[in-house]
Amino acid sequence: MKIAKNPHTNPTSIKTRFALRFLRAIDKLNNNNNIISTPSPLNSADRRRRCRAIRAAAYASMAFAVGPNKAWSRAVLRKIRNRTKEMIKPRTRRGAVRGTINPRNELGLGQEKELRELVPGGEAMDFRRLLNETGHYIQCLRAQVQVMRKILHYSST
């Protein structure tokens, strides 16, 4: 008799890998840093620090869950290795390779530039790869939001 696997508990799914890593990261933050788990009201500097730490944990968890197969996850992992203070910051284009745009494409130059700035590692991709990576990045962000909503739901009940 075959037992159907529940897609919500599939250990190889990105959602499951992200959830496990993210919960471990949050637990580590709670154990190592009193500012994350303090029940008292936070001032604005502490609140910003807490938000940055949680955001960094979420991005790192998602990048590790995806692994080095995608350029955006490699860019995030590279930032983690380089120990940058902010995980996501406005990027400036310094000598990046630009993809060629086919005039038949509906995406204009301004929109392409914005897309390159949104997708980690996007400034060094050709246009077709940028679109492929963007689709995968959006899927991962949706999975991240779904997992975080479930965590919030379970923690509030």
UniProtKB/TrEMBL annotation:
Keywords annotated in UniProt: Transcription, Transcription regulation
InterPro entries in the cross-refs: IBH1-like, IBH1_N
BP terms from Gene Ontology: regulation of DNA-templated transcription
Xref: Pfam families: IBH1_N
Residue stretches making up the IBH1-like N-terminal domain: 12-83
UniProt name for this protein: IBH1-like N-terminal domain-containing protein
